[in-house]
Automatic annotation (TrEMBL):
Species of the source: Stutzerimonas balearica DSM 6083
Protein name as annotated: 1-aminocyclopropane-1-carboxylate deaminase
Keyword Acyltransferase found: no
Modified residues (N6-(pyridoxal phosphate)lysine): K46
Keyword Membrane in record: no
Entry-linked Pfam families: PALP
Annotated region described as Disordered, given as residue ranges: 314-335
Active-site residues, as the UniProt record annotates them: S73
Length: 335
């Protein structure tokens, strides 16, 4: 067996039982894999996505790491913290124009050099020549795809399946019947599919609209790893768009936090849990099913979400009769 990576999180991962009223009468057991508790700075799936990128950077003798994301990016937040912790310079290529968000302030505090690309410039990230000028400007830096993606990111997330076994035994479950998680780029989902190797299905709740981009990413990653494009299923959880919040979602999130005793955020985990509720009510899961809800973290992004304003924007009773139109849902890209 290979020795443990020096970059792998040392904190034990907890499996927390979840009890919600919407589970009543369905004979389904639910537990949360609390990746949000792994590390105060590199929490959630971001640590595992970065694991093999950090190892690759060390093997290459890289001076630093360079990646991209938005002004609320969980990925850049973790990357900057990892750079500070492990003595690597970090560079962030950001979507849009300069903003002063709590996340951006943390990036600067960690010593990350920031370059704002505008929106048009950021859209160029998929072009083959995108990285060339940045590699010339920062020679020897290890380039990390958006969100910590790519095969290295997926392989890091594959280790989550092995990490699940110890808390599973302590929890008293001999086995489980599937993992449910939010899917942004699809990297973590692909990693779980790789780690499961067909033993248990993986269910992805799409944080953004449109199945095809995530499905294509997962298929590509599985192909690169030499695996068949099977073992998972995708469900829409986007609720009108990535990073968009509506009053119903916010109320559900706050009720779930009180009832389940677990913090959530509206971009990924709250939407994923809400979509799970829909499938439980629809009878998708057989009675007796034991499901693992993978809490992918991202709680730092809450600082940029004004959820009270979302609730205040909701029209009161009689709004339709008075001709008032419902305001659009609030939006914040978390990249």
């Amino acid at each position: 067996m290979a020795p443990p990576s020096p970059y792998l999180a040392g904190a034990p991962i907890q499996l927390q039982p979840l009890s919600f009223t919407w589970l009543d009468g369905h004979a389904i057991e639910l537990a949360a894999l609390r990746l949000d508790q792994v590390d105060p700075e590199l929490s959630g799936n971001k640590w595992f996505k970065l694991l093999h990128h950090l190892e690759a950077a060390a093997a290459a003798g890289a001076e630093g790491l360079i990646s991209l994301g938005g002004p609320h990016s969980n990925h850049l937040h973790a990357l900057a913290a990892a750079g500070r912790r492990f003595g690597l310079r970090t560079v962030g290529l950001l979507r849009g124009h300069p903003q002063d968000t709590p996340t951006v302030q943390d990036l600067l505090d960690c010593g990350m050099a920031l370059h704002w690309l505008g929106y048009g410039g950021y859209r160029e990230r998929y072009q083959p020549e995108f990285w060339a000028p940045w590699q010339a400007r920062y020679p020897g830096f290890h380039c990390v795809p958006e969100g910590g993606g790519g095969l290295l990111g997926a392989l890091g997330c594959a280790e989550l399946v092995a990490e699940l076994q110890q808390p599973l035994e302590a929890f008293g479950w001999g086995d489980y019947h599937g993992c449910w998680l939010a899917a942004g780029t699809g990297t973590t989902l692909a990693g779980l599919v790789l780690g499961e190797a067909g033993r248990h299905p993986v269910y992805g709740a799409l944080a953004g609209p449109g199945e095809h981009a995530v499905a294509a990413t997962v298929a590509t990653l599985l192909q690169q790893a030499g695996r068949d494009d099977t073992g998972y299923r995708l469900f829409d959880a986007s609720r009108r768009g990535f990073g968009r919040f509506d009053p119903e979602l916010v109320r559900f999130m706050r009720d779930a936090e009180r009832e389940g005793g677990m913090p959530l955020e509206p971009v990924y985990t709250a939407k994923a849990l809400m979509a799970l509720r829909e499938q439980v009510r629809a009878g998708f899961f057989a009675p007796g099913s034991r499901l693992v809800f993978v809490h992918t973290g991202g709680l730092q992004g809450l600082r940029g979400a004004n959820l009270d304003a979302v609730l205040q924007a909701e029209p009161g009773p009689g709004a339709a009769e008075t001709g008032r139109e419902k305001r659009p849902a609030a939006s914040r890209r978390q990249g």
